[in-house]
Amino acid sequence: MRSKPCLVVLVCLIPASVLAQSAQPSSLPDQTTPEPAALRVGISPFVPFVFLGGTEPEGFSIDLWRRVAVKLGQEYRFVESSGVAEKLGQLQAGEIDVAIGGITMTREREELVDFTHPSIESGLAIMVRAGEHRELGYFTRLNLGKGKWGIIIAFIVLIIVAGHLMWLAERGRDAFHDKYVPGVFEGMYWAIVTASTVGYGDKAPVRWPGRIVAMLAIIVALPMFALFTAELASTITVAEFESRIRGPQDLARHRVGVVRGTASATWSANQGLLIYQWDGVDEVYQALDQGVVDAIVYDAPNLQYYAQNRGRGKVELASEPFLLQDLGIAVREGSRFRERINRALLELVESGEMQQLRIRWFGKAEL
């Protein structure tokens, strides 16, 4: 019974700060954990956000982070990794403090890490060879059905028959040679000119048999020629319309190149497109250049950079970005630097520096 007062006395002698500390959970939130003196910034190759292989990393995300770090007044060092998945894993494990480099902000990733304000809006885009779908490329896709071929063949037969009849009726005259060759070709020339323009006047029948042939040829050939030209014009128009790629809705009739395992590959497969997959984007660019595929579906910033630099004059973007997503900087959950980075990003936007970076790396302020 006398031990209880002793326990009370011992408890009273323990400092309140110690008791409070012992009452806290064993795993402290990130905001109470001291950040290292030099922030460890995770990067991985992702053109044009991060370029590796030179003396120093380069890219849009590298330039953006350097400006952010200046405003934070914070030392940092880059930690290289193989890709986004590894970077986010390192971030969760506490091996790095920040992850940059075109990281898409998704609900699944938000459950694992925190994101700053978006640094750029991205999405998927479509790239094609320059000019192919606006000039002569559609002639390779002309689809002449049986009915249209029938009209073409009938018109050709009419020209041949009319040419022979006219030569037989008018041979030996000044306008038509008396020999079969070139006399028949002169007759066919007259038939084509008469059917298309009602004649130039350089060759005309002078005998009644020839005039009768001319009247019949005009009566039959003019409507047939009009039908022939109308069908051919409609076929060319349809072929041109179908061959042009203006957006995702036009990809169903074309061969599409994608990078295996990317969001663009998943989207293209879900759309039921005819896709050709490669492991690297450079291989997809080469396939487009060689005509193996008609279009590329990939991340809009990457395609925009390629079109502005390596592919200038050879390729062009055929659509505005679609399936839009935001890209941001990832930090550990509860990181004390999140708000400071957000303020730095807003300052860069207000000062115009963000716009300058986007123009430098993507050719325009907005994708």
Beta fraction of the residues?
15-25%
In the CATH scheme, the class of the largest domain would be Alpha Beta
Q: Which structural class matches the secondary elements?
A: alpha/beta
Q: Using only CA atoms, what is the Rg?
A: 37 Å
The second-level CATH architecture of the largest domain is 3-Layer(aba) Sandwich
Low-confidence segments, given as residue ranges, are 6-14, 16-32, 133-142
Number of strands: 10
Q: What is the CATH topology descriptor of the largest domain? A: D-Maltodextrin-Binding Protein, domain 2
Helical residue percent?
A: 40-55%
Averaged pLDDT: 78
Molecular shape: rod-shaped
User: What is the terminal separation in angstroms?
Assistant: 79 Å
List the secondary-structure elements in sequence, H or E: HHEHEHEHEEHHHEHEHEHEEHH
Number of helices: 13
The CATH homologous superfamily of the largest domain is named Periplasmic binding protein-like II
Give a quick account of the main beta sheet: strands, pairing sense, barrel closure: 10 strands, mixed
Number of domains: 3
Question: What is this structure's SSE topology?
Answer:
Layout: H1 3-13, H2 16-23, E1 38-43, H3 60-72, E2 75-80, H4 84-93, E3 98-104, H5 107-110, E4 114-115, E5 120-129, H6 146-170, H7 180-197, H8 208-243, E6 255-259, H9 263-270, E7 274-278, H10 281-289, E8 295-299, H11 300-308, E9 315-317, E10 322-331, H12 337-351, H13 353-362
Parallel strand pairs: 1-2, 1-3, 6-7, 6-8
Antiparallel strand pairs: 3-10, 4-10, 5-8, 5-9, 5-10
What report would you give on this structure?
- 48% of the residues lie in helices and 16% in strands.
- The model is unreliable at 6-14, 16-32 and 133-142 (pLDDT under 50).
- Strand 6 (255-259), helix 9 (263-270) and strand 7 (274-278) form a beta-alpha-beta unit.
- It has three domains: 29-122 and 326-362, D-Maltodextrin-Binding Protein, domain 2; 128-136 and 246-323, Periplasmic binding protein-like II (D-Maltodextrin-Binding Protein, domain 2, 3-Layer(aba) Sandwich); 139-243, Helix Hairpins (Orthogonal Bundle).
- Strands 1, 2, 3, 4, 5, 6, 7, 8, 9 and 10 form a ten-stranded mixed sheet that branches.
- It is built from 13 helices and ten strands.
- It has helices at 3-13, 16-23, 60-72, 84-93, 107-110, 146-170, 180-197, 208-243, 263-270, 281-289, 300-308, 337-351, 353-362; strands at 38-43, 75-80, 98-104, 114-115, 120-129, 255-259, 274-278, 295-299, 315-317, 322-331.
- It has 367 residues and is of the alpha/beta class.
- The chain starts with a helix and ends in a 5-residue tail after the last helix.
- Helix 6 crosses helix 7, helix 6 runs antiparallel to helix 8 and helix 7 crosses helix 8.
